[in-house]
Specification:
The structure is a single chain. By secondary structure, the chain is of the alpha+beta class. Among the domains are: 207 residues, Glutaredoxin (3-Layer(aba) Sandwich), CATH 3.40.30.10; 91 residues, no CATH class; 193 residues, no CATH class. The chain is 50% helix and 10% strand. It is built from 27 helices and 14 strands. Strands 2-1-3-4 form a four-stranded mixed β-sheet, sandwiched between helices. Strands 12-11-13-14 form a four-stranded mixed β-sheet, sandwiched between helices. Helix 12 packs antiparallel against helix 13.
Length: 741
């Protein structure tokens, strides 16, 4: 079984120890004890395991451990100070499965358990509850030139400053013991020889670390948002090469937000015809690859969070609800822009799955645990397949999933040859082709494939051990809400809109406390305050809800949540930080590190502020937008994929294009016009508002009188661009401004 480990990782603690020993010569011999003259008032033996009332299912799984795991809150700093011991933090999550395995090994092996629990105050951190610690893990890993992998082991001083951190990933057995032995020895040695050095050096290192990744104010930018969108989209389109299909036969694995941006670019008159066509082909071809199997689980229809580990081998196949909801939103947006029926159908199917399986169980993540490489789990060999399927079924499965007796996994995704005899279930063969080859009707092929998938799925579930997390965050539901709104706009079905409204109501009822703030995670009486990304994700989802209904309560809620975020999260730099200062143990100021389906807090903030500025005209939002253009635009030049959400926000323009709806949005003519405005090929470039509404909406210039039952007036910078009262005229007007047609 493949294990994630390297020689360098094993030597890191030794290298760190050598470095520390050299630096300690600068410390005076008589001034080495940070706690000099103070008796330790606490013993680790007095600590009791606190995980029984923890906030997530993953954390509560530690409740019966002999290790006295302490909760991750500010009280742990005092416990560390009073016991005069460093803090040991086990950082992991249910996503991936490896964290549960390593924790089990710590508990099962007495030598490891005692080594950790007797020499430090032990805490366990769930990155689903505290995502800023995942960001810290990224930086600590980068400092020792290692790829971030969870679980991660971090030792901290009683001030909450990291002493050292080691990414563990899937290490186990002897490899795990060597890592823990070396690191514990290093930390204990430096702590005993000079606790003052350990505390003061970790404090200094942490300050330097914050200085490195904190965002700096730079000279005001002269580039307009339209130019940022033009440059970034053109650059992104050049990254796709249909001739270099090196990842599951897809021309590059591009995050969901990049696929949205490419599709948006295909409709923009800011780009040349050639670039627009390149954007369309790139977006469509990559999504075709995703649907065929690059990220899709062909057995249950869900989508993987990640398909690769640090050595580029194929597993691990972890899934979570927010990634799948983001994919569903992306499919609705791209399918609508490209008018692709297959993509739209996939979006509808995926969202139904999210609602019927994930939401119904409050399931936020699901990962295989143990040996995920066992054939019959996610990868298959013919011995397993022959046991499960009949001869006729196997023949059809070979065609449908491109199976090969010697394996079908490309060398590009399996460079070490770990899985060369195994098969992944990719499906790029049309039903009509399968029917022709096997002399069946298309209906028979569909029926037989459904039975084959059920058999394989039943076998996989029986033979694979899974770990799950059944605690939804506010961001999880906000991502689902955006997908539901996209579906309602696509289908124009009133029942779909009611489902979205129910989700929005659930968010406000469960996670929003007026005057106090947003909650990231709630489990009974236990809550964790929302992070910056939670505020932005939620506010943006409610803005989309408002634009699709023009119901003022959604705008009021989105505005209030955004205003509260600025009040508590934007004190230091005027930018939205991850956590307020009083919530920090380790001060992680910004969150700009994207995983495969990640968004940066600042990119989300820009998208929310862009629309709120167009709606409310509040100068605080325009000031925030100015900050973003100065800071994120230069970063986007270097890493366009990481900042595609910001670049997509720039499609709204330097001066917002506002569609003012006149009339009754619930009338049939009103619904028709509102549906056209909320179509993804248009909403990506404009903000929708009613002619009159709550007192928080900005004043409008004098508008032409309403024509007929409902009409739309387009304005930009208080200038009237046109009016339309029929769907045909509105499409013509919008396309002339947006697409240049």
């Amino acid at each position: 079984m493949r294990r994630f480990i390297s020689t360098l990782l094993l030597t890191v603690p030794t290298l760190l120890l050598t470095c520390c020993e050299e630096k300690q010569t600068e410390v005076e011999v008589n001034d080495k004890d940070f706690f000099s003259g103070i008796e330790a008032s606490l013993s680790v033996d007095s600590f009791k395991n606190e995980m029984a009332t923890a906030e997530t299912e993953f954390l509560r799984s530690f409740a019966d451990h002999e290790i006295a795991w302490q909760k991750w809150d500010k009280s742990i700093l005092e416990k560390s100070k009073s016991s005069q011991l460093p803090i040991f933090a086990f950082v992991g999550s249910a996503l991936g499965g490896a964290s549960s395995l390593v924790a089990e090994e710590f508990e099962a092996k007495e030598d490891l358990r005692l080594m950790l629990s007797k020499r430090a105050v032990c805490t366990v951190i769930d990155i689903n509850a505290y995502p800023e610690i995942a960001t810290l893990g990224f930086h600590l890993s980068s400092e020792i030139r290692k790829t971030t992998a969870f679980p991660m082991l971090i030792w901290l001083s009683h001030e909450g400053s990291p002493i050292t951190g080691i990414p563990i990933g899937e290490a186990s057995g002897n490899s795990l013991e060597i890592i823990v032995n070396n690191t514990v020895a290093m930390v204990e040695d430096v702590w005993k020889k000079s606790s003052r050095y350990a505390v003061e050096n970790s404090r200094s290192n942490n300050a330097d670390r914050q200085d490195r990744f904190d965002l700096k104010q730079i000279e005001p930018a002269t580039e307009l948002r339209e130019e940022v969108f033009r440059r970034g989209t053109r650059q992104l389109s050049s990254l796709h090469s249909s001739g270099d299909q090196d990842i599951d036969s897809v021309g590059g694995l591009i995050p969901y937000s990049s696929l949205e941006l490419l599709a948006i670019g295909s409709r923009s008159n800011l780009l040349t015809t050639e670039i627009r066509e390149r954007c369309r082909k790139a977006s469509q071809s990559v999504i075709t690859g995703l649907l065929g199997g690059a990220l899709k689980d062909q057995l249950d229809g869900s989508y993987f969070y990640a398909r690769r580990t640090t050595d580029w081998s194929l597993p691990n196949f972890s899934k979570n609800i927010s990634s799948q909801a983001k994919i569903a939103s992306m499919l609705f947006k791209v399918g609508g822009i490209l008018d692709d029926a297959r993509i739209n159908a996939e979006a509808l199917t995926l969202l139904r799955l999210i609602e019927s399986e994930w939401l119904a169980q409050s399931l936020s993540s699901l990962s295989p645990i143990g040996d995920v490489d066992v054939s019959g789990g996610f990868l298959w060999n013919f011995t397993t397949l022959r046991k499960i399927l009949t001869k006729e079924e196997l023949a059809l499965a070979i065609t449908a999933f491109s199976l090969d007796d010697s394996g079908n996994i490309p060398i590009e995704v399996d460079p070490l040859g770990n899985y060369f005899r195994l098969n992944s279930l990719t499906n790029r063969v049309l039903v009509s082709k399968m029917a022709e080859k096997h002399e069946l009707s298309e209906e028979e092929v569909t029926t037989n494939l459904t039975l084959i998938k059920k058999k394989l799925l039943a076998h996989r579930e029986k033979n694979t051990r899974f770990v799950s997390e059944k605690t939804l965050t506010v961001s999880d539901l906000s991502c689902v809400l955006k997908a539901q709104i996209a579906r309602a706009c696509h289908s124009t079905d009133e029942s779909h809109l009611k489902i979205a409204e129910a989700t929005a109501d659930r968010i406000l009822k469960t996670y929003w406390v007026p005057g106090e703030g947003l909650i990231r995670l709630k489990n009974g009486e236990h809550t964790i305050p929302a992070r910056g990304a939670d505020y932005m994700e939620t506010s943006l989802a409610l803005i989309f809800q408002y634009q699709s209904t023009l119901d003022d309560r959604w705008f009021s809620a989105a505005l209030e949540i955004m205003e509260h975020a600025l009040a508590i999260l934007a004190k230091e730099t005027d930018l939205v930080a991850e956590t307020p200062p009083d919530e920090r143990i380790i001060p992680i100021r910004q969150h700009n590190i994207s995983m495969i389906f990640g968004e940066s807090t600042l990119g989300l903030a820009d998208a929310a502020a862009n629309r709120l500025y167009a709606l409310a005209g509040d100068k605080r939002f325009s000031a925030l937008l100015d900050k973003h253009i100065n800071i994120i635009a230069p970063m986007a030049k270097i890493s366009v994929v990481t900042h595609t959400d910001f670049i997509a926000s720039c499609a709204l323009g330097e001066e917002p294009l506002v569609a003012v709806f006149q009339g009754d949005p619930k009338s049939d003519p009103g619904k028709s016009l509102l549906s056209l405005l909320n179509a993804p090929e248009r909403l990506s470039f404009l903000t929708v508002r009613p002619e009159s509404g709550g007192d928080k909406l900005s004043a409008l210039p004098e508008l032409p009188s309403q024509n007929g039952g409902a009409s739309v007036v387009l304005i930009r910078n208080n200038q009237l661009l046109g009016q339309a009262s029929t769907p045909e005229k509105l499409v013509e007007l919008l396309d002339s401004i947006i697409s240049g047609k």
